[in-house]
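Hi all, long-time lurker, first post. I run a small reading group and we've been trying to get comfortable going from sequence to structure in the token notation. Rather than ask abstract questions, I figured I'd post a concrete chain and ask someone more experienced to write out its structure so we can walk through it together at our next meeting. Sequence below, copied exactly:
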Amino acid sequence: MDKSLEKSLLVWLKAQKKACGLFLKLSLWLGMISAVAMVAQAYIIATILDGVIMGQQVVPLTDNAQMVSSSVSIDTYTPHLIALIALMLLRALLAYGRERASFEAGKRLRGHIRAAVMDKLTKLGPAFIKGKPAGSWASIVLEQVEDLQDFYARYLPQISLAGFIPVLILAAVFPINWAAGLILLLTAPLIPMFMILVGMGAADANRKNFSALARLSGHFMDRLKGLSTLKLFLRGDAELKVIATASEEFRSRTMSVLRMAFLSSAVLEFFAAVSIAVLAVYFGFSYLGHLDFGYYGAHANISSSTDPQIVGIPFSLFTGLFILILAPEFYQPLRDMGTHYHAKAQAVGASEALITLLEHPEPEFVGQVRINSIETLSADNLEVFSVDGTRLLGPLSFELKDNQRLALVGPSGAGKTSLLNALLGFLPYKGHLLINGHELSALDLAHWRQHLAWLGQEPQLFHGTVRDNVALADPTLPDDTLWHLLAEANISDFVKAQPLGLDSPVGEQSSGLSVGQAQRIALARALGQKASLFVLDEPTASLDSQSEQAVSSALNRAMAGKMCIMVTHRLDQLDQMDTILVLDKGLIVQRGDFTTLSNTHGLFQTLLRENIESVADIELVPLPTSASDTQLDSDTPVDIAAEPTKGEAQ
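-- Answer (accepted) --
Happy to help. Here is the structure in token form:
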């Protein structure tokens, strides 16, 4: 990974720590207090062991004299034992409190980032979300946000503790033995130095690992959703091999990350053990009399005894015991930082995708204007763009007034759904898109959407109950209102037939319901909006004839006296539309009512010919098959009853 990129990612990660609140600082302060208690605990342990083992022995001043020792009473160290137990309990409580505070800090951070991601996806809208498989979004929202936990809960506090604890121990060691303090000071940089050298590629490896996981998640989710199609086309075995290949790639990348983790841990343990061994060797040779430096004053004269009855230099193990007890604790914060360094690498790898998403430009709808109803809707030289700036539609102009219905038709890719997405506030635009004379970008989007009833070609119901889905916009709706909405959508009889009624469960992806039943429940939900404008994107495209008739009749009743914009490929539904806009390659190529367009040579007539099998009980002029053909008599009816075809997806 580029160093400048990694640095910018770290800056962003550290800027998010304010979301942790006071818990991050609390974790740090508890760690510092625990470090002070640890030094005090080492002092008491060294004092007790020195007193019990040596018993205040004295090194004689002459070679032929014997060592002198005095008896030690256990009562002398009772206060030390009590203090030691108290310090052990205190450190246990501090460790517990630190873990709780660290977890809470990471928990708050994860909640903050997930909320930011979901808010961003809401602002970018479905047009952007469809650009990636559902599995990739699940990887970002779940796994990658989850991998930020240890960075805030452990790595950031450990950075401060890795600087504070060694300095505290050096402050305790240098006054009693400068040589031991110098050994600690010189060996301390070895651990972070080798940690950095070993972990230089960890962030890049984690980033590639996350990318592989996102691809695998999206790939698997897509194949799982299309399992029936794969089986029907005998592609099951082939796709199984593809998934196995993708899984093997992910396994290989995961193992490379683990190799770095184990190598880093081994390096840290090795240098920490070598450094402690150097200290142990130094004190061993000092006590054997082979080394005579590092102490202040007479050699080994480190006790506080000034008893004139003692003839010789008081000999004590206190210095060696105290420093050797502290030595592992001196290196432990550095080793912990090395362990948590991989949390940093994980966070850096995860943050790249998060920053890319969170900093993605979004439609500029920051208005505060609120309207009470929709009286007019007009476009003037309107151009619609994708979220990455590609023009999808326009320029085009049209006007729609209250109680009028507008249909958008054209081949797939003409820009019909893009226009709806711009109207819903999901895509940026240029030119003018006016609601009651107000620019759409000047409106309060949340309030604007309350005036809309949306129904698409793929009904989206959520896991829960029928009640939860119908009352999605207003969970306080009473049962009578819910039954009325279901009746308007021609689905109340089906719900009443269920044992649980409104509390009947709805599974993931509308499992347990047919497409027609799911669409009618979605229609009931849309009717609950009490909307002024119906925005319909091929609402009957995936339905059988019976369900299509039920949905169409319900929509016609609900749209009475309301404004409507509908995208459709079913041209037999257009005789009730006031205006039809025929789009091709993002431009309006024809406009008019059904009768006018069906008798005018152009794209609409071509589309009508292609869909003539779905037009029933409509009298229209037969279409010429070539330029030389003449039109038939206008009174000749075309009466073809055929099963409705599934509409093409946008």
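A couple of things your group might point at:
Residues 377 and 435 are 5 Å apart (CA to CA).
Residues 61-68, 298-313, 614-650 have pLDDT under 50 and may be disordered.
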